[in-house]
Amino acid sequence: MFAAEKLLIDWPLTPYTGWGSYGIQLVQALLAGHWARPVLTCKADRSPHCEPHWLLRLDEVERYSQGLIDCLCTKPAGVVDTNCSVVLEPLGNRVPPERIRGKHQVGITFFERSAIDASYLQGLDRLDLVITGSRWNQRVLETGGCKHARLVHQGIDCSRFNPTPTPRLLDRPFVLFAGGKLEARKGQDVVIAAFRNFLRHCPDALLIACWGNLGNVGLETIAQSQHVEGSPTNGDAMALHTWLIQQGIPSRNLMVPSVMANAQLPGLFKQADAAVFASRCEGGTNLMAMEALACAIPTVLSANTGHLDLLELELGHAVAVGQQGVGHVPPAIARGYGGDDSGLWGETDPMELEETLLRLWKERNHWRHRAYKEAHRMESFSWTRSMDELLSILVERQLLNNNRKGSFSDCS
């Protein structure tokens, strides 16, 4: 039975992106816990990897939202008024103009700029509440003068991302997983340079380059790096594979998956001896990195921005690199994301990363043991806790009524 109040989510639900996963988990929490009735602004993205029970409820939510979806498709401009108690808006390096109005406006933000200006702060002032995804995002807003921000970490689906092993089918001496859509901010150029040199020591190593870029967003920025030449023609697997060979990595050392639904990732993670995320900046805590840690994969993290929240947990299988590179990212790269005026972005030295990979390879049994011992600690980042915390804050701030009847569960 639905709750009377309505909560609107103004971004696409898709199993292929971090934002999409966040939205899917939020809708499930609303339905299972009877917090509020979810309302969508566009049709959701379906995949054969979506659970049947989710698709059944999604059909129901979309039918209920159809009038608003049709209205937004035909209305040329202006703000659409609704009777929703809360409208959740996605925010990034800028605050977009209001387009849908409810009783209360709440922004969910993951941004890369290391300082906010007066215009950004003014945009936030129209919101009743801002939810941040990392401690550094929270600090940047507070330092800039935002007084109504609250931190809620994103979560992981512990029913999928857990230490339970799967059969190892990739028979190589060392398999490295690297994820995130290809762009300069994510630092894949550093991984390419380090892995290219690592092959001199371990010629049969395999790189799983899970770097598909839907919509080619920021794809061309990778060409600004000194470690690579040019950029792929597009963000699909074939173009990425061709480009990586041009960067000096032989085809036999590459596995380049197509863009994958979230539910497909656990099995791929568990084929790897290690994972690496050399991001120059992460607005959130990096969902893929969290999932790799939960799967008991030794995970190399650049020590900057949102990654610091994970490193501060002092997990035995989280390995920090790039501490000396904070504040040294080329300005041309940071400028495309709002700038690094406060010098909080980080640049990882490929030589340091290469040395780290050598250590993980030579001591892989030791690191595997550490990972299995520590992975359970990631259960504290379950989607259950994340969504319960988010919705409880809305109730605490009197943006939603407290008519909850239950909770959904993934590992707690």
Quick take:
The chain is α/β, with parallel strands linked by helices and about 400 residues long. Helix content is about 35%, strand content about 15%.
Topology:
Blueprint: E1 6-9, H1 18-33, E2 37-40, H2 52-74, E3 80-81, E4 86-91, E5 100-101, E6 104-109, H3 118-125, E7 129-132, H4 135-144, E8 149-151, E9 175-179, H5 188-198, E10 206-210, H6 237-246, E11 254-255, H7 265-269, E12 274-277, H8 287-294, E13 299-302, H9 307-311, E14 318-321, H10 331-335, H11 350-362, H12 364-374, H13 383-396
Parallel strand pairs: 1-2, 1-4, 3-5, 4-6, 6-7, 7-8, 9-10, 9-12, 10-11, 12-13, 13-14
Helix pairs in contact: 5-11
Structure description:
By secondary structure, the protein is α/β, with parallel strands linked by helices. The chain folds into 2 domains: 6-155 and 382-396, Rossmann fold (3-Layer(aba) Sandwich), CATH 3.40.50; 175-379, Glycogen Phosphorylase B (Rossmann fold, 3-Layer(aba) Sandwich). It has helices spanning 18-33, 52-74, 118-125, 135-144, 188-198, 237-246, 265-269, 287-294, 307-311, 331-335, 350-362, 364-374, 383-396, and strands at 6-9, 37-40, 80-81, 86-91, 100-101, 104-109, 129-132, 149-151, 175-179, 206-210, 254-255, 274-277, 299-302, 318-321. The strands form 3 sheets. The chain has a 6-stranded parallel beta sheet, sandwiched between helices. Strand 12, helix 8 (287-294) and strand 13 (299-302) form a beta-alpha-beta unit. Helix 5 packs across helix 11 (350-362). The protein starts with 5 loop residues before the first strand and ends in a 16-residue tail after the last helix. Mean pLDDT is 94; it is low at 406-412.
